[in-house]
């Protein structure tokens, strides 16, 4: 059997390592030909001991001067700096898995789609900012965009069997994060250590904070709207602390179809890696004897309403939403702002966004840069209080 040739961007992160674990377990099905990390030389060298990628990339250009080549096999080509993404995608490959965190993952998604290659996208920021442009491009190049985000992977599996006019609404589940029982008062006092302690999912720091603020779910509402061509009114969020049910589709005939799996990202990643086939996995179905569902209190967590507002304005606003959230989270991770300041900064920046959509990838970059500067200045103002 021909092995599927895989490139993994963000290989040293939570998603990347889960994908690598799948290749380790199914090395008769998959072959890693290229990998990227930003700066984590040590983890990358560990990965390369078990696999022989043709090319690896460190997207942080500063690493080149201090880099220790002796930790890597001489056969492996090593690139530095973000220009290497396009170079790496010249390899002969079947699927790119994009597990980069943040907006830096958008251009690599675009490059792969532009080449007509299939992309399994964990990097939701690609879809939140340039999603419409990316999907339009995919239509013309024949590239398939397969969601890895567990909710979207679940929903796309269900939605593949229905027409849009048969769908009443889709429901994204949210664990609710570590503060789901908080009052407004309690939430405003939460610190970094508490926010980094997620109850069900093990993820990178940005995603973990996004889960605590529910900004992750807000980004996912935008992601779902882009992927499934649905207005935000048709996308609901339901708190489900066990994170076993990932998505539900409510049909016009009164039925609801749901997708369940263990809280392990190797399920949606495996599904995306095998798409469109369904293959035997070592991860077993979940136990679902005790599942709970609650409504989200949007008074306490304004994230979802902010995402809906952004979607109403258009993709300039969703780019502002993402950029301001990235800047606010980075600032919270450095202990510069309070937890609930994140909502305030995103709201402030969002109000400055014009209605409409970016016309090109270059414009997405311009809007992203503009919104980042706005967010920085809002943070400076907070500091002066
Ligand atoms: P991590 O922080 O664990 O990993 C991020 C990866 O991206 C690392 O390999 C890192 O390299 C690399 N990276 C960091 N900064 C840059 C940059 N500026 N340019 C290029 N590469 C960079 O993140 P996660 O794996 O948690 O998340 C990745 C994406 O997947 C996010 O978009 C997230 O929303 C999404 N996602 C994650 C889930 C999860 O369970 N983790 C679930 C669903 C979606 P280095 O290690 O060298 O810094
Ligand atoms: Mg998710």
User: CATH homologous superfamily of the domain at 4-147 - what is it?
Assistant: NAD(P)-binding Rossmann-like Domain
Bound molecules: NADPH dihydro-nicotinamide-adenine-dinucleotide phosphate, magnesium ion
Structural class: alpha/beta
CATH class of the domain at 4-147: Alpha Beta
Elements, N to C (H/E):
EHEHEEHEHEHEHEHHHHEEEHEHHHH
Helix content: 40-55%
Proportion of strand residues: 15-25%
Quick structural gist:
The chain has helices at residues 14-25, 41-50, 84-88, 106-114, 124-141, 150-159, 184-188, 192-195, 205-213, 215-228, 266-274, 303-313, 315-333, 341-351, 361-384, and strands spanning 4-9, 30-37, 55-58, 77-80, 95-98, 118-121, 145-147, 167-174, 235-239, 245-251, 256-260, 294-295. The protein is of the alpha/beta class and 385 residues long. It has a domain at 4-147: NAD(P)-binding Rossmann-like Domain (Rossmann fold, 3-Layer(aba) Sandwich).
Write structural notes for this entry.
The protein contains 15 helices and twelve strands. With 385 residues, it is of the alpha/beta class. The relative contact order is 0.11. The radius of gyration is 20 Å and the shape is globular. The mean pLDDT is 96. Strand 1, helix 1 and strand 2 (30-37) form a beta-alpha-beta unit. The structure holds NADPH dihydro-nicotinamide-adenine-dinucleotide phosphate and magnesium ion. The site of magnesium ion has 4 residues, from helix 6.
């Amino acid at each position: 059997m021909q092995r599927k040739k895989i490139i993994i961007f963000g290989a040293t992160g939570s998603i990347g390592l889960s994908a690598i674990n799948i290749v380790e377990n199914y090395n008769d099905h998959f072959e890693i030909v290229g990998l990227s990390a930003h700066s984590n030389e040590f983890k990358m060298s560990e990965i390369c001991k078990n696999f022989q990628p043709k090319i690896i990339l460190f997207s942080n250009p500063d690493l080149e001067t201090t880099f220790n080549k002796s930790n890597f096999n001489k056969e492996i080509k090593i690139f530095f700096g973000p220009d290497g993404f396009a170079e790496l995608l010249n390899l002969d490959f079947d699927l790119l898995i994009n597990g980069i965190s943040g907006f830096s993952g958008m251009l690599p998604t675009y490059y792969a789609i532009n080449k007509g290659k299939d992309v399994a996208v964990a990097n939701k920021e690609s879809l939140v900012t340039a999603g419409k442009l990316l999907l339009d491009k995919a239509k013309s190049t024949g590239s398939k965009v397969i969601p890895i985000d567990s909710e979207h992977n679940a929903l796309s599996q269900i939605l593949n069997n229905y027409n849009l006019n048969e769908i009443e609404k889709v429901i994204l589940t949210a664990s609710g994060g570590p503060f789901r029982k908080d009052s407004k008062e309690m939430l405003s006092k939460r610190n970094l250590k508490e926010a980094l302690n997620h109850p069900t999912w093990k993820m990178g720091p940005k995603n973990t904070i996004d889960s605590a603020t529910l900004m992750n779910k807000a980004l996912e509402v935008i992601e779902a709207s882009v992927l499934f061509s649905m207005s935000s009114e048709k996308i609901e969020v339901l708190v489900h602390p066990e994170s076993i049910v990932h998505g539900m589709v409510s049909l016009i005939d009164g039925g609801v179809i749901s997708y369940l799996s263990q809280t392990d990202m190797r399920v949606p990643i495996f599904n995306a890696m095998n798409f469109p086939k369904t293959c035997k996995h070592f991860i077993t179905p979940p136990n679902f004897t005790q599942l709970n569902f609650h409504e989200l209190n949007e008074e306490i967590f304004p994230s979802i309403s902010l995402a809906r507002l952004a979607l109403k304005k258009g993709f300039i606003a969703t780019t502002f939403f993402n950029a301001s959230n990235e800047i606010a989270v980075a600032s919270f991770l450095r202990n510069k702002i309070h937890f609930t300041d994140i909502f305030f900064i995103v709201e402030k920046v969002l109000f400055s966004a014009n209605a409409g959509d970016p016309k090109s990838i270059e414009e997405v970059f311009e809007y992203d840069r503009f919104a980042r500067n706005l967010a920085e200045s809002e943070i400076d103002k907070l500091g002066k209080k």
